[in-house]
Design brief:
Blueprint (H helix, E strand, L loop, with lengths): L3 E4 L3 H12 L4 E4 L7 H6 L2 E2 L3 H6 L3 E4 L4 H9 L4 H4 L5 E4 L5 H12 L4 E4 L2 E2 L1 H7 L2 E5 L3 H14 E6 L5 H29 L4 H8 L7 H12 L8 H17 L5 H17 L7 H5 L17
Parallel strand pairs: 1-2, 1-4, 2-3, 4-5, 5-6, 8-9
Antiparallel strand pairs: 7-8
Helix pairs in contact: 1-7, 9-11, 9-12, 9-13, 10-11, 12-13
């Protein structure tokens, strides 16, 4: 494997970088908040003082940060990757950001002789830790081929979906679909509990039929207990959903279920933004009514 740099050691990034180190990468890491690299250094990675230094020590550099402005900052800001990357360096962006911004960043890097692949991920903190992430890749064929050994160290399902930006568009689709899945499971479970059903037996029954899903299998317990330890932050999903809704607007498309979920999440952000996105069930329970979500009285049966 080529020399690899990793920028962004949050909940997802730290676990992904650790899997690269375990796979034998010669790894250099950087994180904006000091101290996050200690465990990786203990595994054998080197810590850089800046994204520029990480890039200078790397042939391939992976980014995993929160949002579009964060990616732009680590790429092109003071001490950014573009300052240290040699011609022929490959940037792999595993963040979830705007497809249009991704294409613009790719053009700016290409002017410096640096290639880019967008490779946003899905699978939550569990997938990052276990190396089983789903990865949506966009970029030139040769660049994605070069990126594949790095991606395979972090994920299980890697799909090349087209030119640069295609990975981000696919991730937007993913976030729209899971928004409906989370809300559907939350509404169903709360309905069952209000109707007097044993929720654990209900989940067992549902798991054998058409309602079975990853959300039901992995997040139903949190919804039942009304406790939401972090897997994937609600605030990050709301950010991702905003990207998807912006893309839909560009395409003159209405996404009513995603828009409803966004309204519900908006009502939860202030108090529950750092909890797992399954906290949408808390709103369905009526303990924290969503701001802006449509309500109506039930009609006659």
């Amino acid at each position: 494997m080529e020399r690899v740099g990793f920028v962004g050691l949050g909940t997802m990034g730290a676990a992904m970088a650790a899997n690269l180190q375990r796979a034998g990468a010669s790894l250099t890491v950087w994180n904006r908040t000091p101290g996050r690299a200690a465990a990786l250094v203990g595994l054998g990675a080197r810590e850089a003082a800046s994204p520029s230094e990480a890039a200078a020590r790397s042939d391939i550099i992976v980014i995993c940060v929160s949002d579009t402005p964060d990616v732009e900052a680590v790429l092109f800001g003071p001490g950014g990757i573009s300052d240290g990357a040699a011609r022929g360096t490959l940037v792999i962006d595993c963040s979830t950001i705007s497809p249009a911004a991704t294409r613009e960043f790719g053009r700016r890097l290409a002017d410096k002789g640096v290639a880019m692949v967008d490779a946003p991920v899905s699978g939550g903190s569990e997938g990052a830790r276990l190396g089983t992430l789903t990865i949506f890749a966009g970029g030139a064929d040769a660049d994605v081929h070069r990126a594949r050994p790095v991606l395979e160290a972090m994920g299980k399902t890697i799909t090349h979906l087209g030119e640069l930006g295609s990975g981000q568009s696919a991730k937007a689709v993913n976030q729209v679909i899971i928004s409906g899945a989370y809300l559907g499971v939350a509404e169903g479970l709360v309905l069952g509990m209000k109707a007097g059903l044993d929720p654990h037996r209900l989940v067992e029954a549902l798991s054998g039929g058409a309602a079975q899903s990853w959300v039901l299998a992995n997040r139903a317990g949190r919804m039942i207990d009304d406790v939401y330890p972090l897997g994937f932050k609600l605030s990050l999903h709301r950010k991702d959903l905003g990207i998807a809704l912006e893309l839909a607007m560009e395409l003159d498309l209405s996404l009513p279920a995603a828009e409803l979920t966004a309204a519900i999440e908006d009502g939860l952000l202030a108090e529950h933004g750092d909890e797992d996105m399954s906290v949408v069930a808390h709103a369905v329970r009526g303990q924290n009514p969503p701001t802006g979500a449509p309500t109506r009285k039930p009609g006659p049966v």
